[in-house]
Each structure stands twice: as structure tokens, then as C-alpha cells.
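for the writeup, i need someone to sanity check this before i put it in the appendix. the sequnce is what the collaborator sent (i think, or maybe the updated version? ugh). structure was predicted straight from it, no edits. if anything looks off just tell me and ill rerun, i have time this weekend
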Amino acid sequence: MRHLRLGFQLIVVCAALLGGAGAEAWAIPVPSIQVGMEDAESPEQISSALQILFLLTVLTLAPSILVLMTSFSRFVIVLSFLRQAMGTQQTPPTQVLIGLALFLTVFVMHPIFSQINQEALQPYLEEKISQTEAFDLAQEPIKAFMLRQTREKDLALFMRISGREMPETVDQVDLHVVVPAFVISELKTAFQIGFLIYIPFLILDMVVASILLSMGMMMLPPVLISLPFKLMLFVMVDGWHLTVGSLVKSIA
């Protein structure tokens, strides 16, 4: 058995002056910290350590999983396009847009997360299935969701790049092929929605610019005049209700 020990102890001396009396000092003990490395006595100990390492790795990649395997990217891109089209600079703040996109993602993905919890996570925690079986059961709902949002053209692209033939059913496609195809499909959908959002605000900017040009006010920025009209138009048509509702309904 080999041990690696690291210890330290700190003594703090304080002086208390009371009514011109002498200084009185005392020491505050600090507990030592020890780090030990011991030989494993059974294979189960090594397996547990590897499981903990795998769990920490998954937690590190959790933000990427959330962005790439859910509709978060579609929501946050469309909301960013909306803010740019309105010309409100940093209003709403980026934190608000990301938070809204996050909660919309949780709302849309809640049925899938519930299915994963019931069919994979809970049986695994109750030791009814193995870790491999839990992973296979957990990837089925999320893969089915991504396949519903993925274009066949994008899926065929990555199947062709990977050098594999298209299986008889899309359910047999591997997860590492579905994820990049799903991402580029989401990006295209988000840009299409962003283009449609830009059109009414662009028309309003062109109308204001034409009016200012006809009046000879060429030095006055058209954006400065069109911004209040954009806000008024967006509020009158209940823009947040329409935008968020359309985004949620766009998820088949």
C-alpha cells in the first residue's frame, strides 16, 4: 500500500488590547488535508471509479448535448434574429433570450425527458436493467425526436460521408450520424424563420427611409425614426405571443 499525504497547519496569533493591558495571543488549529492513493482490492472499485469519471465527462458535455440534441439552437437563433430585426440593440438582454430559449426547450422536450426517465433512468436506478440497456433505451426517444426534425437530404449527406448505406428504416441510423444532420436541419429552419421575421421590419425601414429622402432629411438616420414604429407594430400585433407560439408549433 502506497500513501501520498499532503498536510498543512496554520497558527494565527491575535493580540487583544483591553484598557491598556498587555497583548494576549492564542493559536487556532486548522485541520490537515490528506490525499491518499491505495491499490484496488477488487475490480468493482475500478469499475466505480470509471463510472464516476464517465459521469463527470457527461456533465462537462451537458451544455453541448442540450444545444445540439434539442430545439434550443432553433429558439435562440430565431430570438436573436428578432432582436436584430427590431433594431433594439441589447434589448431584450442576451441573458433573457437565452433563458427564454432554455425554458421553451424544457417545455417542448418535457414529454421526451419524461419518457426517458420512466423507461431508462428509473429502471436503471432500481437495478432492473444494466447501464448499457439504459443507454439504449434512453437514446431511442431522443433519436426519434431528432429524426422527425431532420431532412432526408441532410441525413443522406452524412450517411454518404460515413461510407454507409442507407438502412431500410431511419430508426436503424446510428446516433452519431443523426446528431450532425439534425443540427444543420435546425440551422436551416431557424434561418428560414428569421428571414420571415425580417421582412415586415425591413419594409418599414424602407418606407421610413423613402419618406425622409423625399423630405430632404438625408442626414437623419432612418433607424432612429423607424424604431418607435417597429415597437408599436410589434406590440399591436402581440409579437411575442405570435413568435413564441409559432416556434413551439414548428416542432412537429
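Residues 1-26 have pLDDT under 50 and may be disordered. Residues 175-214 form the longest helix (40 residues).
thx in advance!!
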